[in-house]
From TrEMBL:
PROSITE patterns: GST_CTER, GST_NTER. It catalyses: RX + glutathione = an S-substituted glutathione + a halide anion + H(+). It comes from Malus baccata (Siberian crab apple). This is glutathione transferase. One of its GO terms (cellular component) is cytoplasm. Keywords: Transferase. PANTHER family: GLUTATHIONE S-TRANSFERASE U8, GLUTATHIONE S-TRANSFERASE, GST, SUPERFAMILY, GST DOMAIN CONTAINING. It comes from the Eukaryota.
Length: 222
């Protein structure tokens, strides 16, 4: 019986792009279903009743939620394909540690800077400090996983692609060659490897401009 792999996602979401990247690395064919987050589908609500968020992966009808959980599931299910997590248990635990560090620390600090906050200077400093810690983990490697990409590289996709596009639009400087040279170079490598599974830059920039404009309009009219 042919496998059915369906992804509920949003084109501009780094979280659903993580899942697409992993499926592509494993050469798994899938159907992408674009969700409207303003009017979530019954399938999304039924498949992820706890968080009601994308991405949701449906494998032969069975739903999975939370991008990092999905990435591990993909790695374990399509074992023969490109390895996403290291084989060695210690290295695997380390990869999970850094992936969690990105979601729990780096992204909230970065979002705070990009989507506006009162003490911007302090927020930029805090986000840079966290990104510096992440940068140190790169050591002299090309990717977080070594010569090829792995879990941490996929999870860091927002930092590798979205961050540079958004900071330009918003007019703040977080990830620059001067401040974080290794992370900046990594983001170049990241973009060249993952080009196919990243949203088009023009479309992304237009979307961010719209989003900023509507946030500003809501703030000034309230
Ligand atoms: N921790 C989740 C985060 C997913 C997430 O934040 N998804 C957003 C879109 S980028 C969402 O579905 N938001 C809808 C909502 O919050 O109602 C993951 O890693 O999958």
């Amino acid at each position: 019986m042919a496998e059915e792999v369906k992804l509920l996602g949003v084109w501009g979401s780094p979280y659903s792009r993580r899942v697409e990247t992993a499926l592509k690395l494993k050469n798994v064919e899938y159907e992408f279903v674009e969700e409207d987050l303003q009017s979530k589908s019954a399938l999304l609500l039924k498949s992820n009743p706890v968080h009601q968020k994308i991405p949701v992966l449906l494998h032969n009808g069975k739903p999975l939620a939370e991008s990092q959980v999905i990435l591990e599931y993909i790695d374990e299910t399509w074992k023969e394909g490109f390895p996403i997590l290291p084989k060695d248990p210690y290295e695997r635990a380390q990869a999970r540690f850094w992936a969690r560090f990105i979601d729990e620390k780096c992204l909230p600090a970065t979002y705070k800077v990009l989507w506006g906050c009162e003490e911007l200077e302090k927020a930029v400093e805090e986000a840079c400090e966290l990104l510096k810690i992440l940068e140190n983990e790169l050591k002299d490697k090309k990717f977080f996983a070594g010569e090829t990409v792995g879990l941490v590289d996929i999870v860091a996709n927002f930092i590798g692609y979205w961050l540079r596009a958004i900071q330009e639009v918003v007019g703040v400087e977080l990830l620059t060659k001067e401040k974080l040279p290794k992370l900046y170079n990594w983001s170049d490598e990241f973009c060249s490897v993952f080009q196919e599974s990243l949203p088009p830059k023009d479309k992304l920039v237009a979307y961010i401009r719209d989003r900023l404009q509507s946030t500003n309009t809501t703030t000034t009219s309230s």
